[in-house]
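Researcher: Quick sanity check before group meeting.
Model: Go ahead. Protein one:
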Amino acid sequence: MSGPLPSDAAALIADFALFDDWEDRYAYLVDLGRRLEPMPDELKTELNKVRGCMSQVWFVRDDKGDRRLHWRGDSDAAIVRGLIAVLQVLYAGKSADEVKGVDVEEVFRTLGLERHLTTNRRNGFFAMVSRLRSLTEELGAAA
């Protein structure tokens, strides 16, 4: 599979629901990660690294001047790139208020991620969520 990411959380959940078993969902998650635009190596710095992840993960906010969260992420692990893609669907282009309204825990449960990811991956996922919330707070500080 290739193409754009699902347009929103509802489309993402509907796509995951098409698969009956976790192995197929896992493969779809990895495919979502392949759809991400690669991050240039010069952005993969210590400053942009997400702390709390077992894998190497980098997030960079792209300021477009519209007070919305535009960002890119990358990882050295295929499954983590898939999780970054999920977060892109949930958070990209959102205002600070919209980011606060995202029930990421519910989406995580609905997709079945809480049952099938290791504790370390779960912790890393929520470390990425925390970093995105920090990037959102920077939107207010930049205004």
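Researcher: Fine. The other one?
Model: Protein two, sequence then structure:
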Amino acid sequence: MSNDQLSRVFSALADPTRRDMIATLASADATLVDLAAPHAMSVQAVSKHLQVLEEAGLVSRTRDAQRRPAHLEVEVFDLMTKWIERYRREAAERFERLDELLAERTAPSKTCDTPTTAKPASKGKSA
């Protein structure tokens, strides 16, 4: 997945209406009218949202007689997941190294394990 496509995908998913449409399509294919039903907006507005999802590669549309159902392209999510996982793994490794470093620095030193028992010099009179 190119960076430009990845940018389009994340940009498309930034809108809550489009994320809701993705959630609907995750359970089954749906027509434009089906996708517009739960939203308080025109079919034309929902059509523009669907077009953004199509351009990002998240959704495809097929022709079924008079219907044009939208279909979720799961492969794009697999590619996104791999991209995210790569950086999650790198971040986790950095945190593990930081934990190890902090553990080394906060561990008591072996040379300082036993307290010194030096007696203070007396300032009193000598006998």
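Researcher: One line on it for the slide.
Model: The chain has two domains: 3-73, 77-105.
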